Amino acid sequence: MTLVRKYVARPLIIEAVMLRFGNLEEALDWMGGDSYSFAGQEDGKVYINIDTLEGTMTAHQDDYIVKGTHGEFYPVRNDIFNHKYEEYEE
Predict the structure, then answer these.
(1) Which of 37, 66, 73, 87 has its CA 20 to 30 Å from the CA of residue 55?
(2) Residue ranges in the chain assigned as alpha helix (H)
(3) Are residues 49 and 58 in contact, defined by beta-carbon separation less than 8 angstroms?
(4) Cα separation, 38 vs 25, whole angstroms
(5) Per the domain annotation, does 24 fall within a domain?
(6) CA–CA separation, 56 and 70 (whole Å)
């Protein structure tokens, strides 16, 4: 019996928001008050400190904020998000 096997990730539909200068309040409303510790603007760019399962992580402008399968939130860099996900149309 071979110890090493190959696996394929299960398809998963997620919700996500790209953090932009004009949608900070909308993103914060979507996340709810318990999911982040600080949000602000610096040098014309927005950011949110998100309380994740692995500690506080920062979502910067143009990053995506992803809602996980258990309702948790975490940031994903734009380039990584676009490589991993494509928009789902019902």
Answers:
(1) 87
(2) 24-31, 78-84
(3) yes
(4) 12
(5) yes
(6) 17
Give pLDDT tens digits for 57-90: 999 999 999 999 999 999 999 999 999 999 988 8
For 3-15, write each residue's pLDDT tens digit: 999 988 888 899 9
Q: Which domain holds residue 57?
A: 15-84
Alpha-carbon gap, residue 67 to 17, rounded angstroms? 9
Q: Given the structure tokens 């309380």, which residue do they identify?
A: 51
How far is the C-alpha of 22 from the C-alpha of 9, rounded, in Å?
A: 34
- 62: amino acid identity, one letter: D
In angstroms, rounded to a whole number, what is the distance separating the alpha carbons of residues 26 and 84? 24
Asked if residue 75 is part of any domain, the answer here is yes
Residue at 80 is within a domain: yes
Question: Which pTM was predicted?
Answer: 0.85
